[in-house]
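Reminder to self: tokens first, then the designed residues, so the page reads top to bottom the way the pipeline ran.
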């Protein structure tokens, strides 16, 4: 009987040791995460980021202080809930602008995603913007393109005359 009681007590102590080893210490750190899917190159605002308390042991390296995210831009697209770290953020380039482009072939819109790289082509096969970044696709026929400011001005002017073609890179 005493041997049986000792075995039960030893099992309980082993179980308590495992639980204590596995449980986190309770300390957390606030991590800035994407509040919704975010496109690259677009300045981040307060509505684009939310804070999540994460156990210190699960916090990614390079976490950016919550106040340091606003006004910066992502170098690549981020999904909702994804942690924003120093290697994902960059300063906003004042030489880059975004412009809405109406597509000549609306079927292409289904192939485009934020972060896709495209060339924008106008009448007579003139390349109006090379290696531009897709920021968003709206209503299946309008694409928001981020490119050099001079190319964005040219795109805005050309799209007034009619839809433009995009070539996937």
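Designed residues (169 positions):
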């Amino acid at each position: 009987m005493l041997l049986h009681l000792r075995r039960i007590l030893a099992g309980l102590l082993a179980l308590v040791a495992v639980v204590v080893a596995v449980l986190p210490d309770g300390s957390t750190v606030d991590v800035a995460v994407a509040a919704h899917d975010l496109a690259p190159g677009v300045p981040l605002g307060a509505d684009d980021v939310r804070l999540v308390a994460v156990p210190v042991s699960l916090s990614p390296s390079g976490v950016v202080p919550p106040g340091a995210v606003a006004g910066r831009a992502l170098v690549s697209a981020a999904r909702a809930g994804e942690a924003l770290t120093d290697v994902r953020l960059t300063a906003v380039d004042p030489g880059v602008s975004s412009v809405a482009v109406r597509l000549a072939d609306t079927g292409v819109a289904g192939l485009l995603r934020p972060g896709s790289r495209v060339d924008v082509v106008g009448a007579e096969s003139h390349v109006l913007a090379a290696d531009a970044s897709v920021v968003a696709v709206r209503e299946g026929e309008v694409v928001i393109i981020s490119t050099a400011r001079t190319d964005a001005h040219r795109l805005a002017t050309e799209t007034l005359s009619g839809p433009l073609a995009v070539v996937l890179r």
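Strands lie at 28-34, 49-55, 73-74, 89-90, 96-102, 117-121, 127-138, 142-148, 165-168.
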